[in-house]
């Protein structure tokens, strides 16, 4: 076994031993047997065609956990590419006045006019970011009271020392350009760091970093386990933020009612910000409008990508249980997929699709989509539409395959349409609405 730092530097050549070695194909260039999802043919009521599973002997825990029957949208849908030339966009937030704020991984924010698709202004005052692999300027959300307080919340990989980086959750006021300026620029003011996630490590993978406000005005934050052991093992530790979904207030403090906020006077107490744990690389969060439940999507190892219904204080198993395998084809912790003290994913892609951002649709433009869950797929190069009934996925459709793009995030706009961004140096902003 190589020393930890040497192991990080040699990851791309796959010289590190399992299980620490091969946990992040997309960022460090290791082989992944997922890839672009097959285009068809599609037979409604029958499972969609898939790539070969990475662990074909693994059995689902219940009927419907894999291979939901195919559904097909009956409403004619128009796919409108509104904007091109975005530099690896990661997050988007609707900021009123027909504008959407987009983050770009290399470290820029851009304001785009929703009607024309034209970028109308950049943003000054963005902190310096570490860029590479998964690292960069990541998610952004607008405060529920943005119209009055102009506050946004965002995450970024902060450079620390010569090689290390760690996630920061910050907030700032997005100040509009002054009228009459020749080159209008928005700016960030009153920047405040809410959380600085430790430890910082040398590799640039598994930051998680999706943000979502709940119905009470508290902020969910998803955090990855940073890929390699020993940090990936901290997903099971209640004394670490890594591999967790956190719930905080707008000042960065633990939200009231969190499951581990008791006994905070003890010398060794759990992190009170933790809402759930045992996550690998969670890049999607969404609230189900039907019942208010929290749903999450996370990257599995090689195969075994998950959609989870998140319960307060629950353990989702990583790295003690997992579907799929390590990237060197070895089983994850002996190949166990179930434990009595962990919660099963509601849906599993046995061949990797690399799920990222997600949203439930609650609009009126396409009624048959109402309360459906939409999940961006990077490796899979599509937008997954999942029909959800209670806590089960009962139908699946693939959208946007004709774009041949890594889909990074999807969000419902104030116009009732779905807005999608693609992960590329020439990234796109796409609007989905009735034709």
Descriptive report:
By secondary structure, the chain is mainly beta. The chain has one domain (67-260, 268-434): TolB, C-terminal domain (Neuraminidase), CATH 2.120.10.30. Helices cover 3% and strands 37% of the residues. The protein has helices spanning 4-9, 25-28, 146-149, and strands spanning 77-86, 89-94, 99-104, 108-113, 119-124, 137-142, 151-160, 164-175, 185-196, 208-213, 219-223, 244-248, 274-277, 281-287, 294-299, 305-310, 347-349, 355-360, 373-377, 382-389, 392-399, 407-412, 418-422, 427-434. The strands form 5 sheets. It has an 8-stranded mixed β-sheet with strand order 2-3-4-5-9-8-7-6, with no helix packed on it. A hairpin with a 5-residue loop joins strand 15 (294-299) and strand 16. The longest helix has 6 residues, at 4-9. It starts with a helix and ends with a strand.
